[in-house]
């Protein structure tokens, strides 16, 4: 019998608040503790993350927070309306946490078929990215050519030619991600 994190299903870590006791197989004792509950530091109002570069230690509130990677958070939010993303760092703080993004579609080295509608026109390919800070701007490049930018909802429809393509996304912080996919008609 071990303590399990109710939100993640992993063995509970010290940062997990909502736990329950459950019986598991002996091999389950070799698994890692919940990797998704992190101890974060908030200001008194609990609206911004802070650190000692911008806030007195006595005014920092330490809170356990359920943090999923961007791609997992994208899908988790569709089924769980209570999921709260991390609050942003206050502007006067140094050393903000890492910002990340992940492709939802297309998958790497994916073969994409562009279907035709009833009138015989080829439908566009909808590209999707999940970002840890959705309010940031993402710039989209197909084979090193700029094709558009998105903010908040990171989906972009394009009509690529047949063949192999490299899709590159760059956010306003300079982070970059690439995907290679092949279009077949």
Structural notes for this entry:
With 185 residues, the protein is mainly β. It has three domains: 1-35, no CATH class; 36-95, no CATH class; 101-183, Immunoglobulins (Immunoglobulin-like, Sandwich), CATH 2.60.40. 5% of the residues lie in helices and 38% in strands. The chain has one helix and twelve strands; from the N terminus they run E-E-E-E-H-E-E-E-E-E-E-E-E. The strands form four sheets. It has a five-stranded mixed β-sheet with strand order 6-12-11-8-9, with no helix packed on it. It has a three-stranded antiparallel β-sheet with strand order 5-7-10. Strands 1-2 form a two-stranded antiparallel sheet. The chain is globular.
Which helices and strands appear, and what pairs or packs with what?
Blueprint: E1 2-5, E2 19-22, E3 37-42, E4 61-66, H1 70-79, E5 101-105, E6 110-113, E7 125-131, E8 137-142, E9 145-151, E10 155-158, E11 163-171, E12 176-184
Give the % helix. Answer: under 10%
Mean pLDDT across the residues is 90
Tell me about the largest β-sheet.
Answer: 5 strands, mixed
Examine the coordinates and then state which fold CATH places here, giving the name of the CATH topology of the largest domain.
Answer: Immunoglobulin-like
What general outline do the C-alpha atoms trace? globular
Terminal residue distance: 55 Å
Overall strand count = 12
User: Helix- and strand-based class?
Assistant: mainly beta
Helix tally? 1
Oligomeric state, counting identical vs distinct chains: single chain
Radius of gyration: 21 Å
How many discrete domains? 3
Uncertain spans, ≥5 residues at pLDDT below 50? Answer: none
Strand order of the largest sheet: 6-12-11-8-9
Strand content: 35-45%
The CATH class assignment of the largest domain is Mainly Beta
